[in-house]
Amino acid sequence: MAACGYGSMALFARLAYADGVDTTSLLALRFALASVVLGFWVRHQRIALPRGRELWGFAGLGALFASMAWTYFSALHYASSGLVALLVYVYPIMVAVLGALLGLDRFGRAETIALATCAVGLYLLLGQSMHAGSPLGVILSLLSGLLYAIYILCNSRFGQGVNPLGAAWVVIVSAAVIDGLIAAWHLTLPASPTGWGALLALACFSSALANSAFLMGLRHVGPTLASVLSTLEPVVTVSLGLAFLGETLNPSALAGSALVLGAAAGLALARARAPAPVAPCPS
Predict the structure, then answer these.
(1) How far apart (Å, rounded) are the C-alpha atoms in residues 94 and 263?
(2) Per-residue pLDDT tens over the stretch 12-53
(3) Which end of the chain is more exposed for a tag (fewer CB within 10 A), N or C?
(4) Is the Cβ–Cβ distance between 2 and 213 less than 8 Å?
């Protein structure tokens, strides 16, 4: 469920863009609607919210999350949804590299193999950018992955005793406030029911529901299996792009995609034998 929700974000965003919504307005409306939906659930379940230092910390993570979302959805203007999703999914390798550089995690044989495999995959995949996007789209996609990697590292080292759904709500509300203030200068709304439907699907299915499903799944299967299963996200994005947006992937790009996703999944499986202190916990 979480993989389908996250993987369909690009499709809903494309539909909203086609209906006249700009990136900042899209994000402001997405986070505002998602905060209402998730806030209702948090209140209904009487979930405790972070307080004091932890409250401000997760609010700061919301700013980082808003930046990551802006680069992702902006990249969709310059590259195909499939290419953007596959490039962003380099983030598990970025987490491993950054964690090692900051002394938060190990970097051994499995990480080295994963990094080398990912590099080869990117070399093959970036050749697709000549047909499915521009250099700016590639840069924004990789920047989004980097910001998400930083977000994961910060999230894994902060607020360990906080209910994840309560923390996620604070993050989403913070992002909604930031994007809302920016969009207030020039807020564009959908021109038809199709655009509004895409926005509601993006907020409810691809944000609130997907986030809750991931966190609940994480509790049942653990971070390693959840990380492996999350490789389905870009697969869903690519499949929807091929089916509904007329996008294509050449054989070289398909091979590169397989290497990038295989490197991420292989690294997660390798770490299952020796759990690392850093584990993905997206909000």
Answers:
(1) 12
(2) 999 999 999 999 999 999 999 999 999 998 999 899 999 888
(3) N
(4) yes
CB-based contacts of 264: which residues, under 8 Å, 6+ apart?
89, 90, 92, 93, 114, 118, 227, 231
Position of tokens 């990038």? 260
Structural tokens at position 205: 């299915």
Residue 123 structure tokens: 């070399």
Residue 246 · residue 38 · CB < 8 Å? no
Cβ atoms 23, 188 nearer than 8 A? no
Radius of gyration of the chain (CA): 18
Which of the four pLDDT bands, split at 50, 70 and 90, describes residue 281?
very low
Among the listed residues 283, 273, 272, 271, the one whose alpha carbon sits nearest the alpha carbon of residue 100:
271
CA separation, residue 88 to residues 144, 147, 262 (Å): 6, 10, 14
At residue 175, does pLDDT exceed 90? yes
Instruction: Please name which of 52, 42, 45, 81 lies closest in space to residue 172, comparing C-alpha atoms.
Output: 42
Contacts of 219 (CB under 8 A, 6+ apart): none
CA 95 remoteness from chain centre: 13
